Amino acid sequence: MAMSRREIAKDAVQQGVEAAITTSGRISAILFDTARRVTTEVGAFGTELFEITEASRRAGEDPDDGGRVTPTHPQDD
């Protein structure tokens, strides 16, 4: 039994919509993965900044003066 023109058109539209949805899903997955990776990298950068700040603070502490921070360039009064 031959397919009618309407059934052929319906099948073509159905396949087109399915292809569009599949492509949209793949693009969405790429975008979500990219956003996840960017978030991970920004978090790692923040962690490094925190560690650098803490190391700087510890380096400026002098254990002989009770933990007070000594300025590197004292100002003249």
Order of helices and strands: H
Please tell me the overall pLDDT: 88
- What is the β-strand count? 0
Amount of beta strand:
under 5%
Broad structural category: mainly alpha
Secondary structure tally, helices = 1
Say what oligomer this is. single chain
**Overall 3D form:** rod-shaped
Q: Mind summarizing the main beta sheet? A: none
Describe this protein's structure.
With 77 residues, this protein is mainly alpha-helical. The chain has a domain at 18-60. Helices cover 73% and strands 0% of the residues. The relative contact order is 0.05. The model has no long low-confidence stretch (mean pLDDT 88).
Write the layout of secondary structure elements.
Elements: H1 5-60
At a glance:
With 77 residues, this protein is an all-alpha fold. The chain is built from one helix and no strands.
Characteristic key phrases:
77 residues; mainly alpha; 0% strand
